[in-house]
Amino acid sequence: MKKTLAGLGKFSKIIAISLPVVLSILLVRMQSLAYRELSPPECRLQKWDIPVSLTAENQDALTQKQKVPLIQRLPVTCCQGDTSCFDEVLYGQISVKQFKIQNSKFKNEDADKKPLISAIACSLQYLQTANAVAAYQNYPVAGITRDRVFKSLKRFRELLLKTNSATELHQAIEREFVLYQSVGKDNKGSVLFTAYYEPLYAASRVPTAEYRYPVYRLPPDLNSWIKPHPTRLELEGVDGLQGAKGKLRGLELFWFRDRLEPYLAQIEGSARLQLPDGTQTTIGYAGNNAYNYKSIGRELVNDGKLPLQGITLPIILDYFQKHPQELNIYIPRDRSFVFFQENHGQPAQGSINVPLTAERSIATDKSLMPPGALALIHTSIPFVNPTGKMEERIVSRYVLDQDTGGAIKGAGRVDYFLGTGKLAGDRAGVTVSNGQLFYLLLKSQN
After folding, report:
1. 297-334, pLDDT tens digit by residue?
2. Which helix (H) or strand (E) holds 362?
């Protein structure tokens, strides 16, 4: 869950260093980049919007005050030469090497399908749990059931394994599946995409002169705390070092060298830690103090410290590197506070308690979207080109909806998990674009 300066896991999927609100500022820039690869107008992103006829039907439903986050439609027909229509990386139809740069786990020619197959297995595991049964009991979209989602995933996996091209897979999906498209933020299908990741930080199990800033375990008596719960400022003080004087005493889990790092770990909802003895471990979301996240990037803009236009996470981090004393001004303004548990090296987990898969897991508002379901995203994502520079590319990706986040609210928000470490963080920090979100379900007769 995570939030948005960063985050994963259960709270909000703390939207990983994605800064959903702050980064939305980049939309104008991203939209101009998003169209550059596609020339025919009918192949541009608008082609993926909800058809006008279906929008009208949805308006009728909204008039009746029904919650309709998804609208059923037929699969999108691909334009000739529009490679963004397909998840081409599954079959090596674009440079698989380029995709491997983003995820070093790929080691052989068949590996392009393996992450997606692994993510599907995680969702199938979840869908057989009591939590999944409960989650789907009152799901707001008619026709989307746990059983149908489960069967759809199994059939999609069969098709994925036996098809030899993205075109062949797409044709099979057109025959056997229908799409449920998110109505988006505008009721026309427009969804804001950001991204998050699992950071890697140096940390210590014991406090030292170098490692001073702690993250904390979940208080065992949290449910008995008087509400409203203490804010971040009340829990850890202005400088982040006063936790031992109050309710957090004895709950320290790990210590960090820099105050910003444990805060970013809270935003991301998880982190991988490099310990002084050379070993690594991981921490993940365990709970929160029930306050909404407030973006410190937005606060910098509001105070005139940074311009609204073009703000990104790297710019925010650079500002605090130059003005570290101001962390004590801005971090306390975020009243939300996240507690952690040690996961002993296990991968980052999403809100449905399964491991997240780089480039194949997303976070959405779980009060609206089907947990564990197979989805298709179509948007602009930054990649590192062979020269080491970041460039945008419109892509379609089959993903699994396995997480949520405090800043991921409504049908018009998706947070895309990009993996672990610096490169994933660099990409997540500049990911913000408009696109579309679809869920794939077998046709009723299948």
Report:
1. 999 999 999 998 878 888 999 999 999 999 999 999 99
2. strand 361-363
337's enclosing H/E stretch is none
Phi, psi angle pair for 349, to nearest 5°: -110, 150
How large is the angle between the packed helices 114-126 and 146-162, nearest 10 degrees? Answer: 160
Beta bridge partner(s), residue 285: 340
User: Quick one: CA torsion of 61, 67, 69, 75, rounded to 10 degrees?
Assistant: -40
- Are the beta carbons of 349 and 119 closer than 8 angstroms? no
pTM: 0.81
Does residue 13 contact residue 269 with C-beta atoms inside 8 Å? yes
Q: pLDDT by residue (tens digit) across 36-62?
A: 344 455 555 456 888 877 765 655 554
**Residue 318: which residues within 8 A CB-CB, separation 6 or more?**
none
Do 378 and 45 contact (CB within 8 A), yes or no? yes
> If you search the block for the tokens 């004393």, which residue do you land on?
325
Residues 6 or more apart in contact with residue 22 via CB below 8 angstroms: 4, 5, 295, 297, 298, 301, 311, 313, 316
Q: Does residue 152 contact residue 446 with C-beta atoms inside 8 Å?
A: no
Residue type, 53: S
3 within 8 A of 264, measured Cβ to Cβ: no
Question: How far, CA to CA in Å, does 210 sit from each of 213, 256, 260, 386?
Answer: 9, 8, 14, 37
Whole-number Å distance between alpha carbons of 435 and 369: 16
Phi and psi (nearest 5°) for 390? -85, 135
Please return the burial class of 375, using the count of CB atoms within 10 Å of its CB with bins 0-12, 13-18 and 19+.
buried
**Judging by DSSP bridges, how do beta strands 280-288 and 361-363 pair with one another?**
unpaired
